[in-house]
Amino acid sequence: MGKLDAFKTALDAVRVMQDMATAAHNVELNKTVADAYGAVASAYAEAIELREENLSLKRELESAKDRRALREHIKRDRDVYYFDTLTAGYHVGPFCAQCFDDNEKLITLRFSHEKERGSLQWYCGVCNKTSDSSNARTTK
Ligand SMILES: [Zn+2]
């Protein structure tokens, strides 16, 4: 039984009372029962809204916890990020520093060859930034 089922039970009971008040031709009782119905219905609607808000906040909290856990293990080395430990769901790196700093997105960098200098660089396919790879640490 869901937590909001009590409202449905109360609404059903008020409907029965409404029928009884109508059958008794009691105008005052009819009005009182109608007011009760309105109060229970709006409390029910508010409870549904609060439940949805609660779910949304729970998801936000989980996402913030995930980001915090991520930030604990990701380390910057000049223009790239690496994980300092094996992290479930991710490879070690390198990841684009700009994309992570701006949008908290882990974008895997690729090697590209710069013809002018004849050197290898990291290249981000999302923000198109290139980073010098000569100082990038090697994976342990
Ligand atoms: Zn990038």
Features:
single chain, 140 residues, three-stranded antiparallel β-sheet, 6 strands
Can you walk through the features of this model?
The chain is an alpha+beta fold and 140 residues long. It has 2 domains: 5-70; 78-132, no CATH class. The chain is 52% helix and 16% strand. It has helices at 5-23, 27-73, 97-103; strands spanning 74-77, 80-83, 95-96, 110-114, 119-123, 130-132. A 3-stranded antiparallel sheet has the order 1-2-3. Strands 4-5-6 form a 3-stranded antiparallel sheet, with no helix packed on it. Helix 1 (5-23) runs antiparallel to helix 2. The longest helix is centred in the middle third of the chain and has 47 residues, at 27-73. It is rod-shaped and about 95 Å long. Mean pLDDT is 88; it is low at 136-140. The structure holds zinc ion. The site of zinc ion has 8 residues, from helix 3.
| Biggest sheet architecture | 3 strands, antiparallel
Question: Reading side by side through the largest sheet, how are the strands ordered?
Answer: 1-2-3
Tally of alpha and pi helices:
3
Total domain units: 2
Which ions, cofactors or small ligands are bound in this entry? zinc ion
Which consecutive residue ranges, at least 5 long each, have pLDDT under 50?
136-140
Proportion in β-strands: 15-25%
Q: What is the total tally of β strands?
A: 6
Share of helical residues: 40-55%
The helix-strand sequence is: HHEEEHEEE
